[in-house]
Amino acid sequence: MKRSLAPSSALSASKKTKFIPPFVSQTSSSLPLSNIQSQSGPLSRPAVKNTNKASASSEPKAASYYQVMWCKHSSKKHKKWEGDAILMTRGSSATLTDTEGKVIGKATGYKLSELSGLVEGSTLVVGGKQIEVMDVVSEENWKNGTCFTGALAAPKNSVSVVEQPLALRKPFAVPSLSGQTMKHTTTPRVVQPLHDPSLRGSLVMPRPTAQHQLEHNISGLALVDVVVDPHLSRCLRPHQRDGVIFLYECVMGMRDYAGSGAILADEMGLGKTLQCITLLWTLLKQGPYGRKQVARRVVIVTPGSLVKNWEKEFGKWLGKERLMVFAVTADNRLEEFVKSPRYPVVIISYEMFLRTHESLRELKFDVIVCDEGHRLKNNATKTTTLIMSLPTRKRIVLTGTPIQNDLQEFFSIIEFCNPGMLGSRSAFHRVYEQPIMAGKEPSATAEEKDIASRRADELNRLISQFFLRRTQAINHQYLLPKVESVVFCSLSPLQTSLYSHLAQAQLQRLRTSHSNDMSQHLVCIGALKKLCNSPSLLFTAAQANSDHSDENSVMYDVLPLFPPGFSPTEDVTQHSGKLRVLRDILRYLFNHTQEKVAVVSNYTQTLDLLERLCGECGYECARLDGSTPSSKRMQLVEHLNSQYTPQMVFLLSSKAGGVGLNLIGASRLILYDIDWNPANDLQVLWG
């Protein structure tokens, strides 16, 4: 009997492309993603509980898996198959799962001989759907999820090609009146690399494969070595050279995945900006085919506080003579960039991109770089949607914290970088996220943990083709060891009294209240954080709420606990244990060292207190927070980093200044309060 061809028979397991190992740094280990490696998930269970103990004991525990095609059950002779699926049989039960991991049918009560005798061509009815077995799926492929990802991720077609020299065209023959032809003899043009690849320390990019040449060199241009400008390559550390090669292979489509995007997720302080500048300068000046430039225009999207920093970094490494960069600011409008073709690189903030996206779409950029790419973790935001709508295929994401909360955020970044690489969001959730997270549950079975581990390994294998992450351990050979100290500060008597009152009052409200409003817990925690920073912050908040305070308010009946005549403007350290400790630390540093100090807080009101403390102690200080104009931020950073600036305290808001600023002038950093998200504190520590 002649059977219809399954919709994805071309993607059968026997024809999958050969896996190419992920990029490995020669100087340090290339970490796939520690957050994923440590996670673990669940296996679909039979829907019907067998109450027959005798038959249950005789059923085999092991499951079998098959690749099938399915359609609605009918009596028609010629079936119209609707899709592919995976059939799992266990004992007398069968479960049908589509290629996105969704269960589309279940049935039980089969004879053991019916299910154990399934071979290619066998038919079965499961949950109102008729199936035909195509092939057997191994238990390994089920547990690691490759039976699903064969249809989810579209791997690059692998064609066996013998590399041959390009055939020379026949020389042009000039016609003549005499009927004879005059041969136009010209020697083929020899194209030399832009820089000498034989020089010591030169950085030469990998040559494209024969398959790549077939797909991308249709005109038959001469193959030329792409050599990084020695002006930059001599400044690169070994791990940065490896990073540039990795990014080049990704954006040029030389790696074994269907896409041209890359994620550089090195931890903070490893030089992601320099690696990116090196790559962009190389793409703007040369290419492997006829030395033609790969990119003509590049857009860099970055947080507003880093626009000037990127402009400065380009000037630092390349100078203004080599490359003209246009930074979109309040003074430099995008319209000026549109009118002038002199600028191949434009730097713009995420907020400005949102306002000018229509003009940017018309410019047709060849490469887009998203700095602090974890800003793209939510595909539902308008900014992310508009950036994803750009037709640019070469996309680079720079981030030191690719995962902050869950795998769905990580999926959003991957989807921007290489759309469709991991299938749909729902498929990713069912095939990877759900099993991995289920395997971490305390009640997870050994089988669920095994599946979770294998799914995590397979996910790591897939993303390692375009995802590169190195740790701070690389810098140990270049920098002095970092010393971290956690200082516990005793509460003052007033703080102890207020803390006890707030905690007991909230507990009493929980016992007597019939409301389901859980927001009061967060309000109480916020009040306790203010109290720990300084009682004056709590006093000010209680005064502001005194007019419309009720018994259910966190601030209710707080003001009477303060001593008579209390003033938030008096000696800032009198009633705050943390401020006393900070004062003593600063006093020691200013008396025994010449080091500059950065003090970081999450709250502007706390920065106000710290600024008053510096004034009372006579310490010079500068402040950078959300209200600081973007044009002034780089001036403050340069003032701190200058060797001619005297010892000072640099007050910094973690939200406004904790992203991408190079505060190399401060050798001491004090986190006055910690954030809900540990990744934000790490971002501040490493910049």
TrEMBL record:
- Biased composition of type Polar residues is found at 24-42
UniProt GO cellular component terms: nucleus
Please give the residue ranges the record annotates as the region Disordered.
23-56
List residues of the Helicase ATP-binding domain.
253-420
Identify the PROSITE patterns for this entry.
Answer: HELICASE_ATP_BIND_1 (PS51192), HELICASE_CTER (PS51194)
**This protein's UniProt keywords:** Hydrolase
Listed GO molecular functions?
ATP binding; DNA translocase activity; hydrolase activity
One of the protein's GO biological processes: reciprocal meiotic recombination
Give the InterPro entries listed for this entry.
Answer: Helicase_ATP-bd, Helicase_C-like, P-loop_NTPase, SNF2-like_sf, SNF2/RAD54-like_C, SNF2_N, SNF2_RAD54_helicase_repair
* Identification of the protein by name: DNA repair and recombination protein RAD54B
